Amino acid sequence: MLGLYFSGTGNTKYCTERFVHRLDSAGTCLAMESIGTAAAILSHEDIVLAYPVYFSNLPKLVQDFLRENGPLFARKRVFILATMGLFSGDGAGCAARLLKQYGAVITGGLHVQMPDSIADEKALKRNREQEMQLVRKAGEKLDAAARQFAAGKPPQDGLGAASHTAGLLGQRLWFSQKTRDYSSQLKIDRAKCVNCGLCTSLCPMSNLPATPEGPHPMGRCTMCYRCINSCPGQAITLLGKQVVRQYSLTDLLP
Ligand SMILES: Cc1cc2nc3c(=O)[nH]c(=O)nc-3n(C[C@H](O)[C@H](O)[C@H](O)COP(=O)(O)O)c2cc1C
Ligand code: SF4
Ligand code: SF4
């Protein structure tokens, strides 16, 4: 089994690895931005495709990945795993509709609630105990879903017509422009930046090339929040104006 994921801050990577390895201890898990994804897709029949939901939609990087690699998914059995901070309606349905156009067979969908990765907005912030509980529950949900999958009855989260309507009305009608293109809204506060180079090396879009004055955003941000959550100077912002609290999944795992 192949787990193919995009994960800005680690939630989706954790969920993919847990789900895939419950089903196949020798299964391979690969990030979408890594080398060798096309060969991996071609050599597997069962694929778990996983991503975080952004504004009830696919991150732009995931949209582009699926469009560029769509034909490789023909006749593949694809189970879709979507992580989210609260709600997505049809998070799994977004990729399912696209992949069906390329002839993929969608075997099921799973929505997993995880801590919110947006570091510069207070909206979904919970205390540490609540976040640890969320991660525990997510683990239980993943294990239960793996058992259902193994029994031939995979969950179908986000794939039906009611979910589609909920995703549209709940968010996409109002926020669809947010994920239509890469963002040029990311800002770096030069006074806070210590020019450590970490964001440059972490960005999956190579959006932060180094310059003598510090990293320079190129307007190709997929809004994954990886750099914002990792910056030692809390110098980077995107949707909000200042970093409220940085997020690290490793602090919440047992
Ligand atoms: C730009 C952005 C938009 C998001 N939009 C939603 C959303 O519409 N609904 C939701 O429940 N969570 C939303 N989230 C939260 C993430 O989906 C959630 O934290 C996810 O588990 C992060 O996964 P990752 O650690 O693999 O990047 C959003 C996060 C970001 C960065
Ligand atoms: S991670 Fe933060 S401090 Fe380091 S170079 Fe990037 S913006 Fe500057
Ligand atoms: S600039 Fe930061 S938030 Fe944007 S894609 Fe790169 S790492 Fe993610």
Automatic annotation (TrEMBL):
Record domain 4Fe-4S ferredoxin-type: where: 184-213, 220-241
Domain of life from the UniProt record: Bacteria
UniProt GO MF annotations: 4 iron, 4 sulfur cluster binding; metal ion binding
Record's keyword terms, sorted: 4Fe-4S, Iron, Iron-sulfur, Metal-binding
Keyword Lipoprotein: no
InterPro entries the record matches: 4Fe4S_Fe-S-bd, 4Fe4S_Fe_S_CS, EFR1-like, Fe-S_Ferredoxin, Flavodoxin_dom, Flavoprotein-like_sf
Name of the molecule in the record: 4Fe-4S binding protein
Organism annotation: Lawsonibacter faecis
